[in-house]
Amino acid sequence: MDNKKKVLLTGAALVALSSVAVQDAQAAANTTAIQAHAQIVAAIVVAPVATLEFGTFSHGGVAGTVVVPPVAAPSVTGSIDHLGASNARVPGSFSMIAALVPVVVTVGATATITHSTNVAETMTINAFNIDTDAGGISEVVTNTAATNTYNIGATLNVAGTEIAGTYSGSFTVTAAYQ
Questions:
Q1: Which candidate, 172, 47, 49, 46, places its Cα nearest to that of 112?
Q2: What's the pLDDT at 29?
Q3: CATH 3.90.550 holds for 45-177
């Protein structure tokens, strides 16, 4: 075979190989559709159900505490003389409407209650527990129904120098999806 025929055959073979490579490259440049999805859950709704009640007591001039846990029986320390039935001391509670996913519920570390006519007279509430006696000020809960109710207990610190009267105040409960 002469050199011209070899060059023509080689050129033809390159053109044939090039067209196969272009077809393979076109086949590799395929496209597909990927689905996207989002789900929105309703905003959390928290509402008070019951007041945290420390009851009626006398302190006898000595410091003590009134402990109202979310589940267990209430108790007192120091010289607190509780008047009336212990069922007058009850945990506070709130209802929560939320999706059936984990929610972080948080209560402030302390709160203050103030005398009804003498605002200089106060008592401090601390050691909050959410839902369980060992829950602490932050608890992860998951609603098991559309609306659930959760208890909050705490400790009232009595200095023993407070004047007689009614003391009241509030504390904040915050709920956020985890």
A1: 172
A2: 83
A3: no
